Amino acid sequence: MPQSDSFRTLLAGQLRQAFDDDRDADTFLLRLDRYGPELTASLQAVYGDAAPALMDRLLELMLHAYHARPADLKRLDEARLLHPDWLQEPGMLGYVAYTDRFAGTLRGVRERLDYLQDLGVTYLHLMPLLQPRPGENDGGYAVADYRAVRSDLGSMDDLSALAADLRPRGVSLVLDLVLNHVAQEHEWARKARAGDATYREYFHVYPDRTVPDAYERTLPEVFPDFAPGNFTWNEEAGGWVWTTFNTYQWDLNWSNPSVLAEFVDIILHLANRGVEVFRLDAIAFMWKRLGTDCQNQPEVHHITQALRACARIVAPAVAFKAEAIVAPADLIHYLGTGEHHGRVSDMAYHNSLMVQLWSSLASRDTRLFAGALRAFPPKPTSTTWGMYVRCHDDIGWAISDADASRAGLDGAAHRHFLSDFYSGEHPGTFARGMVFQFNPQTGDRRISGTAASLAGLEAALDATDPHRTDDAVRRLLLLHAVTLGFGGVPLLYMGDELALLNDYSFAAVPEHAADNRWVHRPRMDWARAADAQANPGTPHGRVNAGLRHLIRVRQGLAHLHASVESRPVPSPDPCVLLLRRDHPQGVMLAAYNFSEHTINFPAQALRDHLGDHARDHIAATAFNLGGGTVTLEPYRALWLTQS
């Protein structure tokens, strides 16, 4: 808001006329007073002289959305304002699933809520379910209509009903919001192709290759195998359209203020439908600047701060999660640094943690892991990480040459080793994965595969080898122990709680056949879920029981509040990762053995942090650290606090 007191008084008087209830007016004006300066500062930074008119437009959108917000969601807003660290609590547990693969439809999901609640889920991310383009649609990330649900999954009313069922159970509904692009079938793109000048300005369309070629000199390729380049000729539009991802996904022109206004309206509409967390997809790519890779530009953070401020004014129960799979030095800006400190996204993916988990598992060496974590800048204490063992996407080996060098490794050689190891090509590997998007120019090979298959369970079961099976189960539980014990929101990918294996049937589905990421997107096996409970001695039963135990322990461990960060401390054994958390209730030290070997670990390394006596919360056992060594069994995890 403008800083003139007389103007503020005049504006407040005008806005009050829009309310029938003085309490509602007070609430809206207080929030506007709190977040308005952040909003106007960001608008000014990005849009300059166009900012005042845009602010007027946004005020109208926010007033309309505030009046339309249901009473129960307004109550949730007030509860969240009194509990601002709700996303940081140790009891938070995310579950990520495709609606159709988990339960068929949104109504089917409602019938499975007891399963999720029994598991301890408090955060349900249903993968892209807004109306995509027909046919090939990048797994739903080519959205044709942000205000409609895929017809085979249900309706927007079904989505609202699901959200209403989740709220009393303490479960937040999470949805993807694709910011960088829309499907070419979206109404905006259709109008642009039809010659509507207003909507043509929503996109980047060039009459010849002059400007695209200038950009291409510094642009990487996201999908070099099946979507090379970043521009696509469209005959109907009569120009080259910017298409970073696939030819049918048109990049939006965020330098146009109308695009921001459209997304404010979309966010508030979905928030009023009960969406509590928005996963901001492809956020790093939103702003284009010649001579750069067009990622992580400063305007992105101003835009996100503006979107967040609008959400805070109307629906403060809503949180943002940045899907920014970028280097740590760039990632921290999505949580907010400098003038944006803590004002951008409330949560971001800790992609590096996931990459280092698999790197350490293959190498049996945690020195690269520890070094990479040390290089991470500290996050704002009001924000949180989203940690995961696996997700719906491939694994890209985001290991920098600098981190590798500090660990005594050659970065390119190590990335090559990991691709060989997890594609099953390296001698002695336990993993079964598939190479995704080989780039011959860079040698980059990403990996597809479920957690269980990459951790060795598929190969062990095929070999009917109980020892190898036991190792695979231990590996999986170790990986989950690290994510659950890191501090933040652990995100459990559907089926990992049952150790689901690779699903090779994807190749028989025409729209999936060219994209082997569907190998790790199997359908939920409800018979296996029942069997895991009935037969806890099976491999999937052991994983399920072990994971449930870790979740229960985590829920009662205050040391895992996400305002505190895990930091690596020196370990005398390269196989063992030590992570320390300095919580007001005392020190927590986690120890993880990333090898199949029994490690006799010097007790002094633990005693320096915890004193002579400690308690392992996972096994509920006491440790006397006054002796010479502590024994760490293969793939053992310890969550130790002072006793």
Automatic annotation (TrEMBL):
Pfam families: Alpha-amylase (PF00128), Amylosucrase_C-like (PF22582). Residues 96-528 form the Glycosyl hydrolase family 13 catalytic domain. It comes from the Bacteria. SUPFAM superfamilies: (Trans)glycosidases. PANTHER family: ALPHA AMYLASE CATALYTIC REGION (PTHR10357:SF213), ALPHA-AMYLASE FAMILY MEMBER (PTHR10357). This is Alpha-amlyase.
